[in-house]
Amino acid sequence: MVEHTVRSFDADLETLDRHISEMGGIAEKMLADAMDALSTMNVELAQKVIATDVRLDVLQRTVEDLAVRVLARRQPVAVDLRDVVGVIRISADLERIGDQAKNIAKRAAKIAGESRIPRAVVGLRSMHDLAATQLNDVLDAYAQRDVERAKAVWNRDLELDALEDSVFRDLLTFMMEDPRNITFCTHLLFCSKNLERVGDHTTNIAETVHYIVTGESMPGERPRGIDSSTLP
Fold first, then answer.
1. In Å, how far are 130, 133, 191 from 125, measured between CA atoms?
2. Which of 4, 82, 155, 219 is the most exposed place for a label (fewest CB within 10 A)?
3. pLDDT tens-digit readout, 41-57
């Protein structure tokens, strides 16, 4: 971080960074707990995830309020301006990742009483592991202002899309094998979409890191996988 003549400006930027770090930690924990709740049908853990989302929402509003005050008071330019704008973008993506985790937790609580198909959750666990790795890597990329690491996250989004496609097909198979699986598997389909959306938000953050450091958009079109909603 560049040091400025006005030390309070540096203090504001450091505070924004700390808030983003805190939001990232909360989002990671929510995502991990939501997946654990889904895997074990732990309603108590699911409710904990849902309750934690309020904390993430409050932090996002705190970040936005401070960022707006910094823009108004300091009128930053160049990389300083990109830092502040980037923080606003990243906080929004982290808040939405929390929303995706909360949605998974809500599904876990709703289907806790349903008959379980343990193998149906295996693909979702793989999706979660990749999404969690993406989130961890992009948060590190932001903390270190590491463009190459951000690009790696951006390029790996296709892997999560491919996993979602595989999960979609597996769940359809389970539903066709036994109509009694339909309700359970339908909820899992929504969970797989939530995990895919987490990947989209980590990709957004990767693009923001690239913008903060270089002042430019990520080169080329965003990697796109198959949209499972269009599959027969």
1. 9, 12, 11
2. 219
3. 999 999 999 999 999 99
